[in-house]
Write a structure and sequence with these properties.
heterodimer, A: alpha/beta, D-Maltodextrin-Binding Protein, domain 2, two-stranded antiparallel sheet, B: about 280 residues, MetI-like fold, 14 helices
Chain lengths: ~400, ~280
């Protein structure tokens, strides 16, 4: 009896202690890369979070582009003082896993099951959900509907339509409008083609490079075949669209606002459809970052507060708010059946297309060297688009470079 | 007589043609250099629909002054300008002071290991700044300067490039001047500030201007070393108009026009010294 009393007393004390701890003011740092377009919506969400949790103060800090944020996070980890929470790509998270505070173990099974299936795998490290998806987008086809009545649905249609729409409008011998546009350094675009052709970068257990097989080579050759009909520029394709230089292109759904604005501002109309299907499927790359919580000197109260914030940001109502204002896509299943999302889709048909593509999307692999692999994938694609190498040579070289990165 | 008059006329014509060609070339060069500024200024007044029109629309249909108000409201630019001025002015004054002392020592004084120390200093110029970013960040953190003005100012109070530039200039000042001053009882320190510095005004102005511009445009260092909005500078603020998927060009250009005004004013008042300094120190 006494034992029971003592046990109950201990539990009560611990719970009371936890409650007190929860009430104590705690400040957390959240580093992000959301510039002026998205920042006000993020600020609104964080303000709402702080109103719901008055003991938590969130210091929201813009750290420049994703690359700048990555640089700063890496520097802060070396210095031993990373922020409490930050948004990062999977390939940046992989080498940091050991210094992260896994979010998954602090979520209910219901909450974890609610995350879109395609987004769970690439946030799970060694069987543990370490990070949670946040500002996710998917690659879709943008096309000028004033030029294209029915968007292409297959590689063959896309190539044929790109050729037809590449024209010298004023007859001066210079092409004024290209059928499509490609950014030369774009590893995800090449991966789209590889996956749509049934290929992959590595085999399932990451022991061999498979991109050099027929599927990977054909994917690169397909990109090569598009070069004569492509406006190739490292700049934003929305700029080329606005300038009337491209008729259609594949881009992230997060670019909808800028792409649509460029079209409308210049008197065009724009449509959105799934990316044209390859011989095997019409999958496209999921893009965007995830939320991580650091475990490098942060207090338990800070880590708990950050987990609470991460869960708040991916809650159905908030992920819908974020998506409908920021051009991203909801990351939890329940969001797609919410009235707010259904109302939004009714007014924005492109969102339905994007959502469909998202559910069917593929994510980055979590190989610890994927950051470097991504870099060589992008360089190989760039060489082909800029005519510095043939598809055959670029893929052969790519295989050698990837093999050197297999071990970790 | 007739022959010599004809030769004289031909010479004049040749001279005029040469001048015409030269001025045309310079005019064309100036136009090319000024075009981006012209685009920046006119774009800062354009409606978004006119920014990327092809062929380019050089003059806005309606001059939208509101772009400036919108741009100013995006981020705390008041703080950014204050910080940029504070950082640029303090680092410039500091660097000029330390650089003069070090350059004089390397140019005119004799001490053990002078050549080796100078070579080591020059070798640091070969290390890419990116490589030093993380070690510098760690050091700044250990000093407790992260997110403080110390981090933005103190590491930039000396410059190897400035030392090298001034050393070269100081070396061209005859040693006899120092000997004469010494005979008159002038100390080294007094000789430096009363004789060497006034004689080296163009080179010092060049160092100062390059430093001011470098500090004013500093982006990555400020971004990495600060967190609070109130500690950041104008170039970091300009990033606010860009994202991974697009750019608000008209607002970015409006903010850019505001950002270059102080530099233009500075150059306007110091261009004579700047040009002299560039010409005489051989940095072209």
């Amino acid at each position: 009896m006494l034992r029971k009393v003592i046990l109950v007393g201990l539990i009560s004390t611990m719970l009371a202690g936890l409650t007190v701890m929860a009430q104590e003011p705690v400040t957390i740092q959240f580093w992000h890369s959301m510039s002026s377009g998205h920042q006000p919506h993020l600020v609104a969400l964080v303000d709402e979070f702080m109103a719901e949790n008055p003991n938590i103060n969130v210091e929201l800090t813009y750290q420049g582009s994703y690359g700048d944020t990555e640089d700063k996070v890496n520097a802060s980890v070396v210095a031993g003082n990373p922020p409490t929470m930050v948004q990062l790509y999977e390939n940046v998270i992989t080498p940091l896993v050991e210094v992260l505070y896994p979010i998954g173990p602090h979520m209910t099974q219901l909450e974890k099951d609610d995350i879109l299936d395609g987004l769970v795998e690439n946030n799970t490290f060694n069987g543990v959900l370490v990070s949670v998806p946040w500002n996710k987008s998917i690659m879709v086809l943008y096309y000028r509907s004033d030029l294209i009545s029915a968007p292409p649905t297959t590689w063959a249609e896309f190539a044929a339509m790109s050729a037809d729409l590449t024209v010298d409008l004023d007859g001066d011998g210079v092409i004024d409008r290209y059928g499509t546009g490609l950014r030369p350094y774009n590893p995800e675009m090449y991966l789209n083609y590889v996956v749509q052709n049934g290929g992959s970068i590595l085999n399932d257990d990451w022991t061999a490079v498979t991109i050099g097989e027929t599927e990977g080579l054909e994917a690169m050759q397909y990109a090569e075949s598009l070069v004569p009909y492509s406006f190739i520029s490292p700049g934003y394709l929305s700029d080329a669209l606005g300038a009337g230089q491209v008729a259609m292109f594949v881009d992230t759904s997060a670019g909808y606002y800028y792409n649509n604005k460029a079209a409308v501002d210049n008197g065009y109309t724009m449509g959105v459809s799934r990316v044209p299907a390859g011989p095997v499927n019409a999958k496209s790359a999921i893009q965007g970052t995830n939320l991580v919580v650091f475990d490098m000197g942060q207090t338990q109260a800070q880590k708990d507060a950050a987990v609470l914030l991460a869960k708040f940001l991916i809650r159905a109502d908030n992920t819908v708010y974020w998506s409908t204002r920021g051009g991203y896509l909801p990351v939890v299943k329940s969001a797609y059946s919410s009235q707010a999302w259904l109302d939004y889709v009714a007014d924005h048909p492109e969102a339905a297309v994007e959502a469909e593509a998202m559910v069917d999307g593929f994510a980055q692999i979590l190989h610890p060297n994927y950051g470097q692999m991504r870099s060589v994938l992008g360089s190989a694609f760039e060489e082909v688009l800029l005519g510095a190498a043939t598809a055959v040579d670029a893929v052969a070289n790519l295989v050698i470079e990837l093999e050197a990165l297999l071990d970790y | 007589m007739l022959e010599s008059a004809r030769t004289g006329r031909q010479y004049l014509v040749r001279q005029q043609t040469y001048k015409l060609g030269l001025y045309s070339l310079m005019l064309a060069g100036s136009a090319i250099m000024l075009l981006p500024f012209f685009w920046m200024i006119t774009t800062s007044f354009k409606a978004p629909s006119e920014v990327l029109r092809m062929p380019p629309k050089w003059i806005p249909t309606v001059w939208l002054w509101s772009n400036y108000a919108k741009a100013w409201a995006v981020a705390p630019f008041g703080w950014y300008f204050f910080n940029s001025f504070f950082m640029a002015i303090t680092t410039t004054i500091g660097e000029v002071f330390t650089t003069i002392l070090a350059a004089y020592a390397f140019a005119k004084m004799r001490f053990a290991g002078k050549g080796v120390i100078f070579a080591i200093l020059l070798a640091t110029l070969m290390i890419p700044g990116q490589m030093l970013l993380i070690p510098n960040y760690v050091m700044i953190n250990r000093l407790g300067w992260h997110d403080q003005y110390q981090a933005l100012i103190i590491p930039w109070l000396a410059s190897v490039f400035g030392i090298f530039l001034l050393r070269q200039f100081f070396r061209s000042i005859p040693d006899e001047l120092h000997d004469a001053a010494k005979i008159d009882g002038c100390s080294r320190f007094r000789f430096l500030w009363r004789i060497v510095v006034p004689l080296s005004k163009p080179a010092i102005m060049t160092v100062a201007l390059l430093k001011f511009l470098g500090s004013w445009n500093s982006f990555q260092w400020v971004l990495i070393m600060t967190n609070r909005e109130v500690m950041r500078t104008v170039p970091v603020g300009l990033m606010s108009f860009r994202s991974e998927v697009g750019t608000a060009y008209e607002q970015l250009m409006a903010a850019s026009v505001l950002a270059i005004i102080p530099v233009l004013i500075l150059f306007f008042f110091t261009q004579k010294q700047f040009i002299q300094g560039v010409a005489r120190t051989g940095i072209k």
